[in-house]
Every structure is written in structure tokens, then in C-alpha cells.
Specification:
Number of strands: 7
CATH class: Alpha Beta
Order of helices and strands: EHEHHEHEEEHHEH
CATH superfamily: Flavodoxin domain
Helix content: 40-55%
Distance between the termini: 12 Å
Radius of gyration: 18 Å
Number of domains: 1
Bound molecules: flavin mononucleotide
Largest sheet: 5 strands, parallel
Structural class: alpha/beta
Shape: globular
Length: 210
């Protein structure tokens, strides 16, 4: 049983999203000891740029045309990343809010793996998912707080949750659970620590039914 643990914070041991995801993963491994955890940190993975060669490879890959050496190298790397998604029985993604959305390196990973006929099909009319992943957990951390009765209502300010909750089912994740951890940094250090501790406690509880 494989758990793909995607980290999208570059802050390593100082990261709130990684700390909460680690609490979840540790608890989940204790419950199901046969789990193999595959950790993919988008900042440390040396992801290829999504440049001319990558786009060339994408279209040649779809049309099954011959690639030059650079395109082939990018395409091989893309296939390796896709294989990690395909192998995953469960996915956990830790995501810090950046400018009311998510870090661009996470989008780079998505742009690399979201290839037609690898993660999804499209027949000109409808999209078909190619992953068969029963569940994913999104852990969304935010420095501030978002509520409709605050000056930062999610209906206007949250561009983090919607895209990721849309994208995972599009490629075949059957159920997405979301854990939001707010006020990790914008209301002082103590408040931040408490929020992260509460997030970890909730994450451990979620591990029992995942
Ligand atoms: C570049 C950058 C942009 C940020 N933008 C927001 C934001 O728009 N809204 C918010 O609530 N917090 C924002 N924050 C704060 C982070 O979301 C918050 O500290 C989060 O817990 C960081 O997670 P991490 O420790 O896993 O990296 C931002 C932080 C950084 C570094």
C-alpha cells in the first residue's frame, strides 16, 4: 500500500503544513504498518521546467510522434512522476496559502503530470479520470483567518482550496478530505503554535478513517 506524501512548502522543519502532514502520516503508519510512504517535496524534486521542450514532448507524447533527446528526457521524467501518482493508494498534499492561492512549484508539478492519456482522457467532449485513488487528504495552512463575516471572506479570498478540490477528482481521486489550519502566523507566534498543534491533533484523528 503506497501513500504519496506531497509537500509544497520549502520551509522544511519550520513548515506548518509539513508538521501537520507528518502527524497524519505517522498516525496512519501506526494504524496500517504495511504502508510505504513516498515523499515528494516539490522544492527538492528538481522538477523540469515546463518550457518549450516540455510542451513539445507533451504534444508529441499525445500524438505518439518521435521526440528529440531533450524532449525525451523531459518526457521520461514526466512519466516517472506520473508513475508515483498511479502507484499511490492514498495521497496527502500539504499546501501553504501563498497570495490567497498555492505555491507555484505545486502548480509546476500539476502541469507536469496532468497529461492527457496519462492522468486523464479527453475525447473532445468529456474528461475521463485515469487514477483509481480512493482517497486524498488536502492539508491547507494559512497565516490568516478566512470567514464570511471577516474582512477576508473565503468566497473572495480563497483561491487555494477550490482548484485543488477540483483537480484531484478530475484525475481520478474518488474522495477528497480537506483539513484547513488557519492563523498559523499572522496572529503571533503563540497563536500560530496552538493552531498547528490543533491541526496535528485533528490530522491524527483523520488517520483513523482513511
Ligand atoms: C509567499 C507567501 C505568501 C503568503 N500569502 C498568504 C496569504 O495570502 N494568506 C494567508 O493567510 N497567509 C499567507 N502566507 C502565510 C502562510 O500561508 C502560512 O504561514 C502557512 O502556514 C505557511 O505554511 P508552511 O509553514 O507549511 O510553509 C504567505 C506566506 C508566504 C511565504
Amino acid at each position: 500500500m503506497y501513500l504519496l506524501n506531497i509537500q509544497s512548502s520549502p520551509r522544511r522543519s519550520r513548515s506548518a503544513s509539513i508538521a501537520v502532514a507528518d502527524a497524519f502520516v505517522d498516525a496512519y503508519c501506526q494504524i496500517s504498518p504495511d504502508i510505504i510512504v513516498d515523499t515528494l517535496n516539490v522544492w527538492e524534486e528538481n522538477l523540469p521546467e515546463f518550457d518549450q521542450e516540455a510542451i513539445g514532448a507533451k504534444y508529441k507524447g499525445i500524438n505518439q510522434e518521435a521526440m528529440n533527446e531533450v524532449e525525451q528526457n523531459v518526457w521520461d521524467r514526466i512519466q516517472e512522476l506520473v508513475a508515483r501518482f498511479k502507484r499511490a493508494d492514498r495521497i496527502v498534499i500539504g499546501v501553504p496559502m501563498w497570495n490567497f492561492a498555492y505555491p507555484y512549484k505545486l502548480k509546476q508539478l500539476i502541469d507536469l503530470v496532468a497529461q492527457r492519456n496519462l492522468l486523464f482522457t479527453y475525447d473532445g467532449r468529456e474528461y475521463g479520470p485515469l487514477l483509481k485513488t480512493p482517497r486524498a487528504l488536502l492539508i491547507l495552512t494559512r497565516g490568516g483567518a478566512f470567514a464570511e463575516d471577516l474582512p477576508t471572506p473565503p468566497s473572495r479570498f480563497d483561491h487555494q482550496r477550490g482548484y485543488l478540490e477540483f483537480w484531484l477528482p478530475l484525475v481520478g481521486v474518488q474522495e477528497v478530505k480537506t483539513l484547513v489550519v488557519e492563523t498559523t502566523s499572522w496572529r503571533g507566534e503563540e497563536k500560530g503554535k496552538n493552531s498547528v498543534e490543533q491541526g496535528k491533533a485533528t490530522a491524527r484523528k483523520l488517520a483513523a478513517h482513511f
